Amino acid sequence: MIGLGRDIAMFKPVISAAVQGDPDAILVVEFAEEDQAENLARLKQLNELMADLGFGWNNPPRKWGGVVEITEPALQSAVADFRAAGLNVMMSMKEQGKPVSFVEDCAVPLQHLADYTERLNAVFARHGTSGTMYAHASEGCLHVRPVLNLRLEKDVKAMRAIAEETFAMVREYKGSHSGEHGDGIVRSEFHEAMFGPRIIADFKEVKQRFDPESCAQSQQDRRRAQDGRPDAVSLPAGLSRRRFQDRARLVGLSRRRRRLPGAVEMCNNNGACRKLEGGVMCPSYRATRNEKDVTRGRANTLRLAISGQLGPDALASDEMAETLKLCVSCKACRHECPTGRRHGQDEDRGAGRARRQARASAARSAGGLPARLCRSRLPRRAAGQFAQSQPVCCENCSSGAPASAPGARCPRSGAMCFAPTAKPSARPTAARSCCSPTPSTASMSGKISTPRSACWSTAATGCTSRGRPAGVGRCCCGRTYLSAGLVDNARAELDRLVATYAPFAARGVPIIGLEPSCLLTLRDELLSLRSDETAKAISAHALLFEEFLVREAQAGRLKLPLGSIARKVLLHGHCHQKSFGAFKPVEQLLRLIPDLTVEIVESSCCGMAGAFGYGAETYQASIEMAELSLLPAIRRADPATIVVADGTSCRHQIKDGTERPALHAARVLAMSLDRAKSVSTPAPSKESIHG
Fold it and tell me: What is the rounded CA–CA span in Å between residue 108 and residue 101?
């Protein structure tokens, strides 16, 4: 459970804080007296007890260990949440075998628990597998699940053998084979051996009185007949792996996408994606409250399609497109789903060519035909139809659809973009950062103020920042292609990016980006498309602007001369920042500015999500997502409050929905640097604050 949790974004921080080293197991001990002094006294006694037993952090393996004291309420709650999510954590295994419940709930007297678990592990090993264990150690009851692939006949046989040997062991200890859940039907064949004939007779009488017509048994028989399973072994529904692969080939899936069945099976229907507050997941469900629009609904639809239950062409059907169309690629399920689900996206393929359009737009003035077309009311509808093959404007690196929806307004495309230096110097320099602003961040603002602000702020730390204003950069993260499912195009873009930045990464130079969805592609999809050491090095050195400066501050290297600019900022986090744990540095950076109060908007996705907010069919859902909390919070804010949002899409959604501009954190930091340089000038006006 600890190992799996370390691979799940939402649990990784609590494990890092609460677990030292790599222990074989941990025992969570909770003191819950009303008097906190009593709790602390008992905690001290626990430390003394462990020392008396000979345990210490510097001891050899057999006596290595100790007490990790957790007194902060937030971390205590996080530990409890991790424990409560145990089943979902176990089901996050990426392999074909999964933890199977059939000896899960056995309980033995506490004094026998250590012997029982040791012997149980030996049983698993004897049958070529291992098991997961967690939960109620203080009651002598562990949730135990052997890892098996029940599509394999050998594992089905192992399941039977493990059950028989385990239950015999439990009887030996005078325990119970169902200590907590009362799984009567599932384990009924073992009841008589466990309880004896007299108790079984009483069970039968109770059953008969409450179910005189044997309804439950009849339903079970019908299910077995429908599934063609006359025996008592309960196998999981669905196709064999071979049939999964055959069906994948029939629908023309690529070799990479044949892993789709395994990804779909990771959803165990726990329903965490249905939450309506806290976190980000799932923004489309929060807006529509429709099961088909939640992550679980999409997974179940895909499961039905792959297993053939929706017909031979289900994956390419209009119904499947309808099910997937409200996914905004927020990646919240990557961070907030307890099973550690990965990302999935599907947007208008025209959006995938947004980068090319940005290049073309940048070569022209902002008043060119595409920009005028997009903002003009009369040809908007025609532009929307035309954009199915060619977008007429680019919003950011994860967008690019026309404003074909009523009320949607395209951003103005600028004449210049900001690009990285293509060739690093031949010999190492003192440069400590390589500025990699995305084409969209500069090109769609009509000027290059945000990238310049970032490089200026970085230079103010004493670091050399490599970057230059030029034509549209030769490097792109491929975000638009990934959003449209054009994987080969994305791979080609990323290959060029890797070739450009490899020399910097090899020298340990941080690669800094401004647009979260673009920069974080280097920490996510890049490693899915390439597994070579060069790609891994670039991914390891990719940092958002705020992450870099906060890291410098924590290392004592950040000495920015900052001045007071406003009393308060209202901060909205980009979905991908939250998914990768990269949102906190934005808040930390803004708090460096003197006299500035930072208030975080408790929001899910802004709803723009690249091209999503510009589509005629998804525009209304986009607005509903924004109106859940983000836009109302901004409307309530004092006019003097600065609104901060790092995502280009987020800033456009805020501007369109409230008529208030939002700034990138780099712009705010640059304003503070400006203020410090000109402390003798009057305080900035409202207009200058909002840029």
Answer: 18
